[in-house]
Structure formats: C-alpha cells, structure tokens
Model the fold of this input.
Amino acid sequence: MYLTFKTHYFNLLFFTLTSLGLCAQISLPAFFSDHMVLQQQQDILLFGKAAPSEQVVGSFKGEVLKTNANPDGSWRLVFSPSKAGGPYTLKLSGNNTIEFNNIFIGEVWFCSGQSNMGWPLYKSENGIHETENSFHDKIKLLNVRRSMSGTPTKELDVDNKWTPCTPKTAKNFSAVAYYFARELYKRYQVPVGLIHSSWGGSSIEAWMNADAFKNDKSKEQLLKKINSTDLNQLEQAYKVVEKQYKIYLDEADMGLKQNWQSIQEDYSSWKKMQLPNEWRRTPLKQRVGVVWVSKSITLSAQDTTADLELSFGLIDNEDITYFNGTRVGSIKKNDVSRKYIVSKELLKQGENIITIRVKNPLDIGGFRSGENSFYFRTISSKVSLSGNWRYKVGIPNIKEPPKRVHPKYLPSSLYNAMLYPFFDYKIRGVLWYQGESNVSKATEYGKLFPKMIQDWREKWQINMPFLFVQLPNRANMGIKQANFREAQAQALNLDLVGMIPTIDIGDDYNVHPANKYDVGYRLAVAADYMVYNPKVIGYYSKIIEIVPRSKSVLFSFDQSIVNKGASEIIGGFEIFKNGVFQSKANAKLVDKKTIAVLHSSNDYPIEIRYLWKDAPSEVSIYNDLEIPLPPFRKTVVN
Done:
C-alpha cells in the first residue's frame, strides 16, 4: 500500500514538474543550426529557452560558459569575438545536450526586399550553368520561409536552418545574394553567410516597424485590424478562393465555349488594339478576365518548308496559343518568355491565323515585353508581329476577383515575422533590393526609406552598412521610375549607406531583369569600398563642383570617368527651365574628370538632367570600375 502510494505520488510530482516546464529541454531558434555562419569580430550571442533556473553550459572553441535560465525560461550566452575560421563544433548542455557541427566564423549579410532580391539563381542569366557550378564550401545559405504576422514574433518555422551552398540549395536561392557572396569570398577568402528574407511584390511598409505609422491614421486603423488576425491563415484562405476564381474564368469564358480559336471564326468583327501592350495601355476597360487576340500572317511557299518560331515575350498571366486553330503552346507563369515552335505541317502558303487566349486573374494583364520580343521567324526571315491585332473579351460581365491577401497591402507584416526574429543574430550588414511596389509614391518613399534603415540599425543595436540597389531601366513608367531613383538616393544622407546604380543592366520591358550577376558584383564592390577597405574615393562617380559658363556648364567629378559611347558627344543630357523641357543638350569630356554640357541660353537658373528617363538609351559614362554615372538633375544658377 505504501509503495503504491509512493509510486503514485512520484508520478504525480513528475507530471506536475513537467507541466510547469521544470523538466523542459533547452532549445534555440531554428537559425542556430549546423552549417551556420557567426559574425566575426563581434560578440557571439546564443539564446533560447529552458526550464526556469536550469543551468545551461556552452562550449565553443575552448571557451566554456555557464548561465541559469531566467524565470520565464529565457537564457543567453555571449562568447568572445573571434577571427574568421572553421569548421567548428558548438555544444550546449542542460537537461539535454545539443551539438552544432560545421560552424564557421565569417561575414554575415542579411538580404531583403521583393522579387528582384528573391529572384532564384537558376532563372537568372546563365542560371543553369551557374547553378551546376555552385559548390562553395565556405558559403552558407539561410532561405527564410515566407511568413506574415500582425504582431512582432520571435517564432520561426523549424525549417529555417542553414545549409551548405550546393546546386541543390543554391538553385532557388537569391541570385543577387549568391553572386555577392561569391565575389566577396573571392576577394577575402573568408566564410560568408547569407540570410535571405524577401517576398515578391512586397512594399517597404511591410518591412517597417508599426511605430513608423503612428501619425498615419489610415495605416493605424489597418494595423489595429490585422493585429489580432492570423495573416498566414488568411493568405491560405485567399489561395483557395483565388483557385476557385481561376476555375470560374475558364467556365465562364465564351471563347472556350464557342471555339474562338477555330479558323472558321469571323475575326473581322473583332475590335482592334495595338500589341504588344499591357492591358492598361489598350482600349480594354477591364484588366482582369480573359481576352482573345488574333492576327493573320502571310507565308510564302518557301516559308512552309520548315518549322516556324513564334515569340511573344512575357504574357500576364496565362496563355494558350493557337496556329490555324491548333494549340501550339501554353504557359501559366507570367515570368516565362513565350517561344513556341509551330510544326511545318500546320503551315500553309498564303494566310495563316495566330490566336492567343490570355487569362489574367489579377494585377497587370497583357503583353509585357517590347517589340523586339514580338515576332515570328521562318526559314528565311524574322518578321515583327507588332501593330494591329483583333481582340474580343471572353467574359464581358465578369465577377469581381477576390481581394488579394498580400504583404504589399499589410504594413509591418513581414517586419514582424521575417525580420524581427533576427535582431539578436549578429550580422555585418544589409543588402536591399526593393522599390518596384512603391514606384508610384516616390516622395513618400524618400521619407520612409531612411526611417526604415534607422529603425533596423536601432533594433540590431549597431550602425551596420546598408547597401541598396537603385532601380534599373524600365520603359513606359511615365517618368515614375526616374523620380523614384531620386527618392531612393535620399537614404545616402545617412552614414554607411551605399547605392549601386543599375541604369545600364535592366530590361526595358521586364520588371525582373535576368542579369543578376552584375547586381551582386556591384554590391560586393560597394562592400569592398565602404566596409572592408574604406576609401576616400567612392565606387561610383560623384559630382564635386558645378561651374556655369557662357553657354555651357562644367561638371567636375571626384574620379576619372570614361565615355564608352560610340561618339565623343555624350547623350542623355537635357535642359529644363521651371520644370519645363527646353532642349536636349550635347556634352563632351573636357578632361578625365570633367564634362562640359553645352546649351544655347544664358538665362539662368536652369535645370540640367542626365538620364532622367524611365529607360534611357544613352548610358555611356562609366568610371574605372565600369560602374555607370547615376542619373541626376541639378539646378544651375549663375
């Protein structure tokens, strides 16, 4: 009887202690894992949870530290700063034992932004080849899983762990960050750790602390609403109704029901539009839904002797392409350039009909690439398809699409879930590639961007370097892209903020330029000049003096510049007065550091603009590092 009671008492006591967490095991956030990189020459901070008052013992590189967990179970260990090296092993023990292997000390960079930061290596220029050769023993990757939260949280998905850099892990990792790390390692031969945390289409507001919007009533109301909402669950629910909406578009499409792709269709009754164009630049009143477009082409007898190639560039979002009534291709992703091969058996001498069904459940809609991607190619020639096309709307009385759940519309949602958990993880600096989702609000961005940088530094408790990508060339943005670049540059008024110009390496008709190598390379050059080998002269040319003269203005720069254009006359300069365009201006190099801009008037003040366009074609001024002179506008007074 006594033994039975004692046994029951012991079991009850054990259950009670377990319920109180007194037998809890020590644990750490998921980003403390095998293969992690810890920042060199800074305190090495480890932290986690254990039972209240439980002793936690840590051993790393011969240093042994002990601490007792706080009443709430939290604990911290701070190991001494260390030089770059590895691999090492780190052990922790308490009620349980944890061992981390293949740890390195080196340079850690936090890489954030929207889709151009997240653009995967395999989809970048030469991406397949680069992925196949991406074995790097001293580069480690942490790809943060997408997550949103209405309030700051330290909770991270358990899969947010470090991995070695291999073709398998690098394939879907940020191309920009990868190229940056590869160049950094090439220069310094120290381990590099990349924490990639981005979300395509996200706005800067999504990455900012809610405190930044205290004086913004509209955002304050929204923040209160989402504060108690499970945003990840809300997103999952949206995906369900989005899928249902796509099914509805197919079921309601009159074109599918009536076989508008058939060669018996009377296309002469269809309306006309100019292609290639996004739907917002056409007569269409609705961007969402299904639109059918058609065009006839004429082929010679010789043209029909070999297969024909069709090219349409990027289509937003889905297409089904028909040739003479037969389906020849279909792609459902909007970021894939359309190129289809038409079998010679489908070709006929004389008139042939191309018909495309374009399905767009949200956002832009239409043909996003330029005329150079819009053609057909026969055995003998390449022929443009630009110009008049016939079109017909597949669902005239369409239902409204479901309201999108996306961090673009949810301030602080990514700050709370994909940034906040990392503030205690020591880093060297930040890489930032974002802005496309804010391009219509340049003035506001010019205020928010510096505020965000300062807040991140405050939370990380270090004035870390912050390097960002100035948006590249992108056509047909109504001068918004040009104005936005100026807004981005407002952040340069802060210390240790660097900007890399990309005005020469974008794609005029693609928001996602394939060239990510040069972006990563230039970021590494900026890190070299600003962080690792600080230099008085910067990595891109800066104006140090403006001297007005009779019918010319001299711009002096802080370093040598070269004109890489075909002519000694430098294009891209324009004269404005009171905000009104006056004339283009010729310019030329006077010496290695001076440009003379010629103009026909001495009626000062005037404003001189250089490359002040969404997608300028005259980029020709570079420094010795082959980095272009960024766009600028300067008011000149006599």
About this structure: The longest strand covers residues 97-113. The CA atoms of residues 58 and 92 lie 4 Å apart. The mean pLDDT is 94.
